[in-house]
Each structure stands twice: as structure tokens, then as C-alpha cells.
Protein 1
Amino acid sequence: MRKINIFDTTLRDGEQSAGVNLNMSEKLEIARQLERLNVDIIEAGFPAASKGDFSSVQQIAGLIKNASVTGLARSVKSDIDAAWEALKGGAEPRLHVFIATSPIHRQYKLKLTADEVKETAVATVKYAVSKFPIVQWSAEDACRTELPYLAEIVEEVIQAGAHVINIPDTVGYISPKEYGAIFQYLREHVPSIHKVSLSAHCHDDLGMAIANSLAAVEHGATQVEGTINGIGERAGNAALEEFAVALQIRNDYYQAITNINLKEISRTSSLVSKLTGMPVPANKAVVGKNAFAHESGIHQDGVLKEKTTYEIISPELVGFQTNSMVLGKHSGRHAFKTRLDELGLTVHDDEVKSLFQVFKDLADRKKEMTDDDLAAIVLEEKLSKEQRFYDLISIQIQYGTNQVPTATVTLSGCNNELIQEAGTGAGSIEALYNTLEKSMEGNINLLDYRIQSVGAGRDALAQVYVKMRYAGHETSGRGLAQDVLEASAKAYLNAVNRVLYTEELQLKLVQQQSS
Ligand code: KIV
Ligand code: ZN
């Protein structure tokens, strides 16, 4: 069996999804989970893009020990320098440098000739290998590049010292047969190709990202790039969980394996979905809610007689648990902490006390506490703690079918001052959000509002996601509570707090740099 390296770019290409903005603790939480999933390479971000990106790549590189951490760089020295500063403390620093090679990109975006692109690529790879032990070079929009030119530039960057050559289908345009043929062509026309590892990076604009990635493997790729749940630019990237499971289930055909710990798939998918606010469609392969549901009578009958009649993947293989109800109001702190450990939720000893209190308060009101509930409250408490500028003290909403909905809100403000406001709206949420807007400076435009239950039952927790524009930033937030209005208020404040937190972080970084 050939070993295929898994290069995860959830925190870089995935974070480029519209409406996704992860803060530092969320990125660290995802990186930890990717390490548990056993991916080979984590692309932690684009260090030159912003001070926040730099700092999160640096922290992830310092944290992760069992995967190689990489960062993206354009073909300019300052990007490579920034990436080196961010990654040099990592267990295996690796650079991912790219330049566009297709005629469309050369002419309209870069305004460079084919020769100039080649010279730039060679010069940047030479510079990169003087700093990094491992350099991956990507030909952006490779699939719309003239093949003889692609082969020439690939040969030259290999001679300049690149270790991995990535052939991205940047715009999700290629079909599996054609993508396989590109890999085949390069293997036949690039004299030094045996010195490097070949990588596939597919986008899903035509719904072919996984099929294309598998075709690349059939034609010599030994690395596949993608994201959890397939999030990413536009229609997203290849979904890594689908790729890993496809290789596992069809290794008879592909004769290739990955190091992915398949049992961590469900947990990773749900963490990424929660923190990015991007729901997993019910019918999504491998991780969708319905992926293992058998609805038709004929199918149910078959599965009862013999599972394999209609089930090619077992839910257990990818870590779905059938019985997840574990704790209740009589559970002690020890049982609580043990279950968190079993769920892979990293909680420091000094955090356990306050988390246990939140759990107890909720367990008093809620009959059953499932693993989903536990994961949701722990993530919510842990990850929003550091950025509470405005904090919710109380809300009161009055609603009646023939009354004007009214909200009264009490908050603690940025300097711990008490803020009280009242307001109205056409509905309860509008009254609440109008009142919250009045409580703080600046205009806020709500762009999206979504509500979802955590688990089932009337007493299920409500998870609210909002997207809004505040102080010139597009921001998103999430809120969790047993009551939908409280969850809505929390999501709103979380989105505002994220902007204030990012601004404060930027200010601190500038001050650190100038002192
Ligand atoms: O899709 C793409 O071309 C990319 C490159 C930066 C590798 O993400
Ligand atoms: Zn991409």
C-alpha cells in the first residue's frame, strides 16, 4: 500500500470561506483536534496576511508536535521572512510558497510574462530553501496552464530545491480524467520528478474535488490537500474526511492508505462546524446526520438482516457513538472531568471548577446531558472567556400576539460599567437586537441569523449563529443557551466582542513591536 500524506488547510483555505472568522483560541482548538486526527501537515494560516494570522501560525507551530506545521507565502521575500519568523519554533517548519502559472493569471493578475513567472518562482524557491528544511511549491491555477510550460517550471523549481510540488485546481474546473492526465504528463516530462513528492489540491466548484483527488492518487500523487467538511473558498475544498474514508473503504482498488485516525472524524467535523458556524448538510457523505440513516422499508429490512446489504461505512468507523447520554445533575466533578478527557476536550485543572458550575446549573434545568451538550458548553465557556468586552447580565422580553414586543437589557460594558436599555421591534429578536444596538456605540447591521438545536428534545440547547457588520468589519458570533432569546443575545454580543478583541489584539501587537 502506498502512504498518502494528508495536508490539512482548514485553518488557511478553509478559513477563507465567506463569513468564517476564527479567533486564536478557536484556531488552537482546531489545530489540537487535527493533531488527534493524525493529519501529516497542518497549514495554519498565511503569516504575512495580518498580525493576527502571524501570531496564530506562530502559536500553532509552538503547540503542535506530531504534525508538520506550514504557512502560506506569496513569491515575495517579505512573505517568506514572515513565514520563517512564525514557523521557525515548530517541530518541522515547512513553507508553502505559490505563484500563479496559467495564462489568465499571468496576463491579468500578475501582469508578468511566462518567463518572468518562471524566474520569480525559481528565485523564491532558492531563497525559501535557504531558510526552511522543507519547501512546497504550488502552481496556482495549474490546471489551466499550458502543460509543456507547467512541466518546464516544475523542473526548474525542483532544481532550485523544492521538495513538494503541488498542482492545484484553484478554480475547481478540471475533471478526474484530465487531472490524472496532468500528473501522468508531469511524471513523464519532468526529468527530476522522482526527487519530489506530488500533491493534489482540489476545489469543488463542479462537485468533483474528491473524484479529482482520487484520480491524482491513481496517477502518482502522494499528498492530498483539503479541509474538514470541505469548507473553503467559494464551493470549498476537497473534504478530507471523505477522501480518507474513500481510501479506507476502497483500498482494494486504490492500494493506498493514510495515517488518519478515522475514529476522530466525527468529533473533528462537529468541532469545525461549531466553531466556523458552517452547518454540515444532513446528506453530506461520511459526516452528515443522514449518512447512516436507512429510511426506505426495503433498506431497513435489508440492514436488519445483514448490515452490509446497504451500509458500506459503519458509523463506528468514523467515531459516531450510538449511546452518548452520560451525565446528569447527580454526577460529580470527577465524572465530569473524566468524560471531558474521554471526549478529547482539553480543559486545564484551573478551568474545571467554573466549567463544572456551568454544567451543574444546566443539569438542574435539563433532564439529560449528552456528549454534544457537554462539548457545546465547554467550547462556549472556554473559547469566549478571553473576549468578553460586553457581557450579558440579564434580558427580559415581553411578547404577545397583539402587543409591541419590548426588550429590556442589562449588560456590563467595556469598563465594567452597568448598561441598561429598553427598546421595541416588530418581533422578539428584533426588539432584543434593537435594544442591544442602542446599548453600544456604532451601527450594527445584521446580515444573517441562524438557529440550531444541540441534540434532540424539547429541552435541547439552542445554538444561534449571527453574521453582522460592525465598526467597518464583517463579523460573526455564536451563542449557546437553553433559551433561544438568551442564545440570540449571546451570539450578538459574541460577534461585537470579536471585533473589539481583534482591534485590541492588533493594538497590543503594534505596541509590542514598537517597544
Ligand atoms: O487553490 C489554490 O490554488 C490555493 C493555492 C494558494 C495553493 O489555495
Ligand atoms: Zn485552494
Protein 2
Amino acid sequence: MKFTQPKLPYAQDALAPVISPTTIEFHYGKHERAYIDTLNKLIEGTEFADMALEDIIVKSEGKLFNNAAQAWNHIFYFFQFSPDGIKEPSGKLRDAIESQFGSIEDFKSKFEEAGATLFGSGWVWLAADSDGKLFILQGKNAENPMTQGLRPIMTYDVWEHAYYLDYQNLRASYLHKLWDIVDWNVIEMRYGE
Ligand code: MN
């Protein structure tokens, strides 16, 4: 199986000014692309060649894990945004967030803080267990909650390449602005409304 890079469901300038067209050009066009290209080269002729991407992530390590997880993480990241998405969670997901974190605002603050305080490169995740309990997790480098048996629901990329062109060193500002483009309809579907 050859993995192909999915086209973005919005125009390259659609997320500006939160994420600029230049950042999309490099982050989606070069970084995500390179992870998928490298993944395809690494699995060619191996036991991983016909596996689903999620299975590769759970069963691999080292360079293959890094490229497989980074490919998955970036696709997941870019597909949760929309210029005209639903701005607030509702239903079961809203209930779970409010009962576990107090309020939507409290949840957002905790999520931003987890992203801002992650040392080095990585991802901040919202993940759920099989009972629907939510977890905010910091993942270093390419880490993904599915390797701990949890289901990823949302993620913010905190590698410098995700924000440096638009926010320079201000990672916290980037994290705060991302709420303007998150499409909660996508997040709710991932949670299982
Ligand atoms: Mn990235």
C-alpha cells in the first residue's frame, strides 16, 4: 500500500490570519509531505507494506514509527480546522468536557498550558478511553495516544515549524489563536456523537 497525501478540505489562505498561507505551504506542503514520502520508502518490501497506517504506528519503532506517526498526526491536525466550522462543542462531548474540566474555558486553558509547557518538539492531545473519559496529554516528538490504547480526539502541533513563521517564538499565542479555526463538529464526530 502506498500512502497518498490527502488534499486539504479548504484553500491555502482559508485559515489566515491564524495560520498563514506560507505556513500551510511549508507545514502541509513540505513537512507533512516529507513524512508521507519517507514512510512510503521505509515500508516498501517490508512486513509493513500492506498494513493500515494505525497498525504501523502501534507495531513499529524508531525511524518508521516517527514517520508513520508524524504522517498520521499531521493529517489529523489539518483536518480539524475550518474557516467556517462550529465554534463551540455541544452534546456528549460538551457534557464530558464540563464534567471533567469545569467549563469549556477551563478546558481550553488547560489544553493551551499543556502545549505551552511541553519542552521541545511534540504534540498536545485530547484523547478518550473506551468509556469516553477524556485526557489531555503531552506527546514528545511523534508520540500518539493510540500507542497507549487511547483514541485521539484533537491535537495541536507544537513543533516550531507549526508556528514560527507566523508567531516566531510565541508558542502560547499560536495555541490561543487556534481555537478560532477548530471545527468542533469534527471533534465531536471523532469523540463519537
Ligand atoms: Mn508539524
Protein 3
Amino acid sequence: MCGIVGIVGTRPVAPLIVDALKRLEYRGYDSAGVATLENGALDRRRAEGKLVNLQERLEAEPLSGQIGIGHTRWATHGAPVEINAHPHFSSNVAVVHNGIIENFRELRGELQADGFVFSSQTDTEVIAHLVEKGLRDGLEPVEAAHAAIKRLRGAFALAVMFGADDNLIVAARNGPPLAVGHGEGEMYLGSDAVALAPFTNRITYLEDGDWAIVKRDSMQIFSLDGSAIERIQQRSVGSALMVDKGNHRHFMIKEIYEQPEVIGHTLAHYVDFNEQKVALRQESTVDFAKLDRLNITACGTAYLAGLVGKYWFERHARLPVDIDIASEFRYREMPMSADGMSLFISQSGETADTLAGLKYCEAQGQHLAAIVNVQESTIARSCKSVFPTLAGPEIGVASTKAFTCQLSVLAALAVAAGVQRGHIDSERERELVEQLSEAPRYTNDVLKLEGEIATMAHGLANKPNVIYLGRDTNFPLALEGALKLKELSYIHAEGYAAGELKHGPIALIDEEMPIVTIAPHDNIFEKTVSNMQEVAARGGKIILITDERGAEEAGMDDIKTIVMPKMPEIITPIVYALPIQMLAYHTAVQMGTDVDQPRNLAKSVTVE
Ligand code: M6R
């Protein structure tokens, strides 16, 4: 993952680079570093851990210089320690890199044979030495950088700075995103436009295979073979304002509380509540009637939203859905239907595995569509039909409001598909639209359960294992509950389809095992209760999330119950997401983990 920044400026750049890195810290926070150039000398400051450590280092030992590069790291090759922090140097060359250089072993061997000494365990350091080797062989800086880029295999967004030239950064992209910002007499580079928002909103995105010469007053883009390329300059809508936590202790709980509003906004984008009809906008229109198959690809929480979507598309629109985890999909060489549509779901729009799946589907001639939160992202820019989630910036690494907005879009699309395919008549459409319109109100009501849920979290905190159960659309929610708990509290948790428990996992149940069961009172409630009883008979400690009728009919003593309002079936996954988010949040708070930036994670996963 990692975030990179570069500035060819007219004022001291180190503080500006740190400001931009703050906006990129969601991409990784294992270490950070800045390098600048002054009077022909490269200098750098690096620090292990979060950006705040680098800021302290810079306060103690400031860096001057009007050209510089910076990096915030999510470790791939080499431990998250200072020697592996970027920028990496080789004599007169400094490099920052996001991605993975797949042939770094081969290159390192070759460079070591030429006498280069490596001071880190990273793959990135080979880039610095390769460029330096070119300089020693008599190449000009730009030629040396171009020659080095041509040797790299893998995924990279990188910036190279040279001791010999204080008006030059060479940038390159193959995979992870890279934006060039155009200022007044200054030029900028960043992993996204938001990082550059305080400096400029005039942005040119590099495409895969592009490399660029960036100077104070010009920028030229080339393809790998050296021919010049034109890329359009666009106005970014990224805000320069840093999103803050308001009165909340963490971004995550703030984002949980934003859900009634952002779900409402998102639904209103797809549904005409006055006319009580689904109303897809022109730019996102898809002819669902012509589709014979829908293929959904995503990762993590976005994948679990897609799994709920599968139930909805099949149930309401009789549209068969294949759904894959992107990292598996891309290698399974799935034959695809000529009349199929491929739908990618992503908050960031930059997830490398999802993007790789997209490229596969593009090559198969599929209609490409995306449900995406970041509208200027690579996934959004690569798809013909884009369905935005209007969640606003999601800062907490654990996805919350993006998930419920993805569900909101999927629900609206499933209804639209049902109408277009003739499985939903206008009366049923009105009914479903009215039900969807209730989602903001119910989510708001459920927020009032926070105190009670915080108390229940005592039953999970410090437990070694937790199991989540659900059936139907609550099965993906069980998986999501387990994922949220794992990533926030580091407790081992698994989600199971309630009916699957008896086929093996029930062997795990003993008096120590908490079981969170998600079971609104619906047509399969009794089945889930039977599964819960099997657990109770073996001493498992049950937390049941249900409605009033479910609580009454569960008929079990010695269980804890979170009582939800009674609501229509189509919005239950959206609304029931909140108690599982709050349960994971409060468990993590009680255990004292870093809720917004859990260990080993990053918000945007731009490596395979
Ligand atoms: O940006 P994306 O939605 O593509 O990200 C996908 C996953 O990396 C993401 O949902 C991840 O699983 C979250 N940390 C879950 O909370």
C-alpha cells in the first residue's frame, strides 16, 4: 500500500510533504519519511511507526530544501523498522515507492555483484541503486531513471529525486495510483488527489505504464518506449479540509453515527421517494433485463456487502449471481457470459486485487460496473457504469458507513433489476421503496442501543475466540461481525452459516465460547433458534441480536439479547450491521487496541 508524495517547489517543502502524508496515512502507518535536496546534498528524516513520530523527529532536526519526496509505509518487504523506512538512498539518488518489485531478488543480486551495498531489506532499494548505476554509467538523470523503470517488474508508483538536479522528480506508475498536481510555479505528486488538495485541484492522473518528468513549471508524460503521451488535466473535487473526529473519541464511532444520514443520501441517489420508484441516473443506467448473469468481485467488507447483494439480486430480480473474493477470482480463469455484467465493489476504488479482477473482466468484454465511494479512484474511472456510495470520506480503517452505503446501493439496484426484469410490479416496487426509505430512521433508533451494547462487549473482551452465526442475508453479516471483531480487537473470530455449525465447527463450543447470533424474527428464525439451542446445550454463551418477537420466541434462559426494532426484511442487513459494528468497537475500546488504525492494516490495499 503506502502513500507517496513529491514536491518541486519554491518554498521549504518538508512541512508541506508532512501535511500531504497526513492525508495518506490511511494507506499505511508502519513508518514514514521525508527527503529533501539543498545545495546539491540529499538529506532525510525517517521514523518507525505513525507519522507523529516523524513530525517529532523533524521538529528536533528540521529539513530545509525546496524539493522533496515523502512516504508513509505499509510494510511488505522487511520489518516496519527505521532502516526499511523510505526514502531509500543510493549516493545521489532518493526514491519513494508504493507497490512490490517482483524481480527485486534478481536485480539485487546483479547490483551486489556490481559492488552496491544494501542497507535495508526492502525491494525498493534496488530502484535507487539501479538509477545510481545508470548515472555511474554516464546516463543523464532522466535517462538513468527511465532505464531503471524499464527493468522493473511488478506494481509500482514511484518518485525519484537526484542530488544533481534541484528541479527534477521522475515519477512512474504501473498499478498503484499516482496523481500529478499542477500549481503556480510548483508541481506536486501524490498517491491521490486528496493528498494534494491543500496545494492544487488541477490534477493529471498517470495511467499504467506511464512515467513523467516533473519540474517546477512543466510536466511531461511518456510511455515506457519513450514516446510522449498526453493525459488530460482535470479539476479534482477532493476537499483540502482534514476530516476531524468532532466530539467522538474515534473516527470509527463517528462514522457509525453518520450512518443514518449517509444511508439516506445514498438511497436518495437511486430512489425517487416522492414517486416511490427506483430511479437510476442516466450515467449509471444498466439494462438488467438483458443480463443473464451478474458477476460480483470485491475484497473484505466490500465482498461481504456483495454477498448480501447476491441474495437480493437472486430473490428480487431472479438474476443469477457469481460472487468472488477478488484475490481468488483473478486467477481462476472463469469463463464469462457474453451478456454478463461484472460489478466491482470498493470503498477506496484502488484495491489492487479488485482492480486486477476488473482487468480480467475487461479483457473478457464484460460490461464493467462499480459501486465505489471514492469517485476519482481508478476503479471508478475504469468502469462504464458507476454507482456511487455517498458515504463521504471513511477514515477509520474498519469499514462501517461505506459497508451500509454499499448495501443501500445493492438493495436499490436489486429492486431496479427486479422491475426491469419483470419480477417486481409497480405495487411491489412502491412497497419495497417505502421499506428502503425506513432504513435511516431504523439505523438512527439502533444507535440508541450503544450503551447496552457496550455492556455486552464485556462478554467478548479478552476472550480467545468468538463465533458469529446467521442465516440467509444474516450469514454475510455474521462474517462481517467476525471480520470487524478480528481486525479491531485481534480476537480470533469466525462467522458461520448457522446451519453449517453442526457439520464441524460445533466441536469448538464449550463454556468459554461466546456466540453472537444474528436472527431477526423471519421465516427461518426457528431454524436459527434450533442451531442456537444446539450451542446452548454445549454451554456456549449466546448473545442474540433479534427483534422483540424474536426475543420472546427464542424462549431461552441464560442468553443476552440485543433487542432491535421490528423492520422490513430488505433493510435488516443494513440496520443489523450497526449492533455488530458497535459490539466490535466497544470490545476493542475495552481492550485498549488502536481502533482507527489497527495493527498491520491499511485503509487502501494497493498490493496483491
Ligand atoms: O477499499 P475497498 O472497499 O476495496 O477495501 C476492501 C477491504 O480491504 C476492506 O473492506 C477491509 O476488509 C476493511 N478493513 C474491513 O473493515
